[in-house]
Amino acid sequence: MLKKRLAEARLDEVPDPRDRRGRRWPLGTLLRSAVAGLVSGAQGLGDVERTTAELTPAVRRQLGIRRRVPDTTLRDALCKLRPYELRPNLHQVVCAAHRRKALSVAQGLPFGMVSLDGKGTAVPSADDFYAQRQTSSDSAALTGVVRTVTATLTSHPARPCIDVATIPARTNEMGAFESALRGLVEAYDGIDLFRLVSYDAGACSLDNAGLVRQLGLHYLFGLKSSQPALWREANLVLGSLGPEQAAATTEDVEYDCRIVRRVYLTPVIEGFGDWTHLRTVLRVECVMLDPRGAVRSTDNRYFLSSLPPSRLSAAQWLLAARRHWGVETTHQILDVTFHEDDHPWIESNPRATAVVFVLRRIAYTLLALWRFVTLRADEQPTRSWRAILSDVCLALLTATEIQPAARSG
I need a surface site. Which of 7, 38, 266, 379 has the fewest CB within 10 A? Predict the structure, then answer.
């Protein structure tokens, strides 16, 4: 898997910014080592060095990593790169998966859906470009936050990450939305991966909604009090509706609780104010019940969409609203399994921190597609992310010449 998929990422084609004098390592080899470390659970550059020191001869030949990669050499190379130079490599992975029909599934929806969301990781440094300064006092320890916008193909069961863009220190998610979306659309121009774009209330604005429609797509935005007029109108029309008026209902069992979700739809706010492209407003109610049926909690969330109510069935509207949160699952995996927040690898250079973020999303997407598409269907529900990383690590350290050859045959 790594031999084939790393070749699809075309890491050898990344422009090398290092001085030609004194280069002892090809940049592609260093980047392959970094991704190999990420997919095997490495939590730092030292782990990558130890892993590459223990690779079997067969794996070395398969991956083109001939010897141990020093952590200082890898760090110096990553510090020379810029995040945008690696974004096309993530796009290459996704386009290759599309060509081999691995992304053709849009579970439950008539078209693809991409969900975007911001994520920040704190580091003890700030350059006021890649890392926004959080420290306000000269006497406090310096803290910065490196922020990105992640795009996840939530209509696909694997939830692959298909793009990542950095958020400049001078702006926020709202301001970075246009650049992130334009870059995403440009990367997949001519490929019908998605037609619906979702974001939480952090990017809900008339300008951003208009941009989505200008690019020939439809939006599903979270709605909160940051849009007071729409918020009040949505509450007025949908807030008082009861369970018997729900358009669709689902029930799930999570741990010891029963989760009931209901969706309420209305087209009556169509064209409200300057929102001439607005067609549907949704309220999604989530009720958590204990084993005895008593209500533990109730949560209501509102959404705006440019799709007319008739474009999706009521069940599909509820599904789309739930899929919107798939990007949060991606972020959770990056934090819990890949330890992005606790171990960003490089903390003193925010630009290099962002470079590792892109590489980590390449690694995540490789494993996500392998886990949900390549592995047999009966293995999928039982293989945890940590087990997958452990298996890859074991293969890197024990695989013989016969095993990869037999597998590829």
Answer: 379
Quote the distance between the C-alpha of residue 66 and its chain's center.
32
Domain count, the chain: 2
What pLDDT is attached to residue 402? 59
Same domain, 297 and 360: no
| CB contact burial 149-177 (16+ within 10 A = b; e otherwise) | bbbbbbbbbbbbbbbbbbbebeeebbebb
- H or E element that contains 309: none
3-state secondary structure of 200: coil
Please give the DSSP secondary-structure letter assigned to residue 188.
Answer: T
Does the pLDDT of residue 40 top 90, yes or no? yes
**Encoded amino acid at 194, one letter:** F
- Determine, yes or no, domain membership for 7: yes
Residue 167 lies in a domain: no
User: How many angstroms from the chain centroid is the CA of residue 233?
Assistant: 32
Q: Which long-range contacts (CB under 8 A, 24 or more apart) does 179-182 make?
A: 180/116, 180/149, 180/151, 181/116, 181/208, 181/211, 181/212, 181/215, 182/211, 182/215
287: phi then psi, degrees, rounded to nearest 5: -115, 125
CB atoms within 10 A of CB 44: 16
Residue 227 shares a structural domain with residue 288? yes
Domain boundary among 285, 310, 335: 310
What DSSP character marks residue 210? H
Return the higher-pLDDT residue of 52 and 402. Answer: 52
R_g (Cα) of the chain, nearest Å: 23
Q: Is the pTM of this model over 0.85?
A: yes
DSSP assignment of 109-134: SSS-EEEEEEEEEEES---SSSEEE-
> Is residue 336, in this structure, part of any structural domain at all?
no
Considering the domain architecture, whether residues 303 and 364 belong to the same structural domain is answered as no
Output DSSP code: residue 141: P
Name 298's bridge partners: 287
Q: What is the pLDDT of residues 293-326, one digit of tens each?
A: 888 889 999 999 999 999 999 999 999 999 999 9
Residue that finishes a domain, picked among 250, 281, 310: 310
Domain that holds residue 240: 219-310
376 located within any domain: yes
